[in-house]
């Protein structure tokens, strides 16, 4: 896959290259998919693949409170813009990175909001049209990069995140009594006094609300320890004085605020990671334990 260098998008190159391998996609598929999505008339309210289909944009309300799950969004994109299965991948909340859509439709019939990746011909205003369509479906563009295929045609790899997610409150409270939040030890004094405060996350959550992440499961499991070691390594790279000291808090879920909602972390390490958009009061913290990763 030949990358078109762009300084602003260079940091995403390695990550996005792993999603679509253009060099191994049959040229016949690429030929069929390399189309231009143009307005069918000089009216900005109408976009279409061709004159056999007309999408009236003004009927799509991007400010709607409705949450469209990934299954519905994928079907709408395939229907309205005629994308093929190989052009769409979905990042599963089960920890499986970017499944083919066909596989997802077979194995995950009830999946909810997820991260979507699309391979779009980067010609004319294709990317703007796709981005606007996904915006109307409740998804916003967070990353993009451009590549060339064997015939030197330019493709855009686009990553979309849901603006909102479906709450899994009932599922969490029915299945779990406790969750775990592990944080660097330098936050301990503040947490003891004020509880665990929701904070704005790093990109691609810049436009989203503040949140607190928790782990549902056994924090002594090899899988969780591996995750925390990875996080510790990242923090040490940013702060040479950080020695890997953490505090693990056990949270009593029933003592969280009555209106708390739980959401799957679609960018996390596994489906056991969830987040809430509320602070965790000190009264909801059952126990704490010092750990080193």
Principal-axes geometry comes out as elongated
**Major sheet strand order:** 1-7-8-6-4-5
Quote the average pLDDT. 80
Radius of gyration: 22 Å
User: How would you spell out the order of helices and strands?
Assistant: EHHEEHEEHEHEEHEHEHEEEE
What fraction, in percent, of the residue positions are helical?
Answer: 10-25%
How many domain units?
2
Secondary-structure content class: alpha+beta
According to DSSP, the number of beta strands is 14
In whole angstroms, how far apart are the ends?
37 Å
Number of helices: 8
Oligomer: single chain
Content of β-strand: 15-25%
Largest sheet: 6 strands, antiparallel
Can you tell me the residue ranges where pLDDT is under 50 for at least 5 consecutive residues?
A: 2-8, 40-62
Summarize the structure.
About 25% of the residues lie in helices and about 25% in strands. With about 290 residues, the protein is of the alpha+beta class.
Key words describing this protein structure:
ADP-ribosylation fold; disordered N terminus; 8 helices; three-stranded antiparallel sheet; single chain; alpha+beta; 293 residues
Folded structure, characterized:
- With 293 residues, this protein is an alpha+beta fold.
- It has two domains: 2-162, no CATH class; 169-292, ADP-ribosylation fold (Alpha-Beta Barrel), CATH 3.20.170.
- The protein is built from eight helices and 14 strands.
- The strands form four sheets. It has a six-stranded antiparallel beta sheet with strand order 1-7-8-6-4-5. The protein has a three-stranded antiparallel beta sheet with strand order 9-11-14, with no helix packed on it. It has a three-stranded antiparallel beta sheet with strand order 10-13-12, with no helix packed on it.
- A hairpin with a 7-residue loop joins strand 2 and strand 3 (55-56).
């Amino acid at each position: 896959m030949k990358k078109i260098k762009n300084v602003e998008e260079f940091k995403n190159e390695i990550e996005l290259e792993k999603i679509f391998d253009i060099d191994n996609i049959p040229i016949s598929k690429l030929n069929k998919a390399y189309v231009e999505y143009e307005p069918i008339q000089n009216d900005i309210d109408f976009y279409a693949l061709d004159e056999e289909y007309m999408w009236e944009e003004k009927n799509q309300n991007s400010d709607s409170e409705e949450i469209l799950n990934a299954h519905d969004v994928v079907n709408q994109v395939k229907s309205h813009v005629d994308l093929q299965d190989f052009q769409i991948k979905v990042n599963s909340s089960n920890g499986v990175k970017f499944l083919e859509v066909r596989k997802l439709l077979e194995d995950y019939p009830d999946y909810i909001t997820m991260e979507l990746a699309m391979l779009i011909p980067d010609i004319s205003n294709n990317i703007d049209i796709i981005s606007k369509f996904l915006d109307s479906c409740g998804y916003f563009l967070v990353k993009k990069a451009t590549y060339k295929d064997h015939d030197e045609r330019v493709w855009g790899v686009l990553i979309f995140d849901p603006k909102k997610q479906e709450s899994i409150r009932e599922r969490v409270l029915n299945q779990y009594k406790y969750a775990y939040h592990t944080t660097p030890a330098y936050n301990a004094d503040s947490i003891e006094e004020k509880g665990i405060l929701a904070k704005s996350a790093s990109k691609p959550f810049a436009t989203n609300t503040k949140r607190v992440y928790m782990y549902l499961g056994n924090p002594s499991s090899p899988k969780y320890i591996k995750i925390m070691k990875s996080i510790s390594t990242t923090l040490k790279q940013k702060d040479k004085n950080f020695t890997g000291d953490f505090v693990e808090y056990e949270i009593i879920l029933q003592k969280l605020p009555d209106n708390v909602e739980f959401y799957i972390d679609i960018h996390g390490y596994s489906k056991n990671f969830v987040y809430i958009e509320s602070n965790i009061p000190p009264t909801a913290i059952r126990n704490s334990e010092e750990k080193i990763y």
